[in-house]
Write the structure tokens for this entry.
Amino acid sequence: MTKREAQLRAGRLRPKSGANLLTLQRNSAIDRYPFAEISPRLEIVVSPRAKRLALRLCPKARVMNLVVPKRASMKSAYEFAREHEDWIQEKLSELPRRVRLRDGAVIPVFGQDRRIVVLYNENLKFTDILLKKDELIVMTNKTDPSSRIKRFLVEQARAKITALAEEKSAAIDRDYKDITIRDTVSRWGSCSSDGRLSFSYRLIFAPKQALDYVVAHEVAHLAHMDHSENFWDTCESISRDFEGGIDWMREHGHTLMRFSA
Ligand SMILES: [Zn+2]
């Protein structure tokens, strides 16, 4: 509950519009039922378009969405969720375990598993990180270097993705404006109409052919801003292993979300 909602409930503020009022009524309707007892990772999504109650696993956000049509009652939604309680818990428990970026964790970097080895020394002036064949060596004066490790991985991803984008865009004789590396939940990559490419740093945890495919996909958009046959031909022509990459992203892409700083 936000501060504003709390004030609204206490009657100190008037809702600004009908929409707010609706949300408020909805929220208090949700609060009447102990959805969190079923699972704290069950999220209620009230949808104006949905025709019936539905459960949808969202592996990227690691939650189960309970889609509730606008006209449906919260009581019926709650009963529906209770009926499927075991299934909800089972599906959520099958999601890959979280891996934190800390000493001892094993993370795949460019398709190769590497163990994080933190060498703490309070006398060091700064953190130095080395990417080895099987290890990621972190020499640091920080008791928790996880955000520093993440920054290192972002920079490694940037260097690799930039090199691939340069090679692929040259192959189709197109230019891009710039490349942004982010930690986004919704997309692995994007290409704007003015040629700005953006990628998720999490692609660093994917096998090489998968990373390569995502870069090829966004670079191919520099030539075709759609998903036409011509687009897919271009994408395939600049991918090292088109089928392998696209299959891996489809089947395992969500597992890239399990790493966190
Ligand atoms: Zn696309």
User: Anything to note?
Assistant: Confidence is low (pLDDT under 50) at residues 1-21. The first strand starts at residue 42 and ends at 47. The pocket of zinc ion is lined by residues 217, 221, 227 (CB under 6 Å).
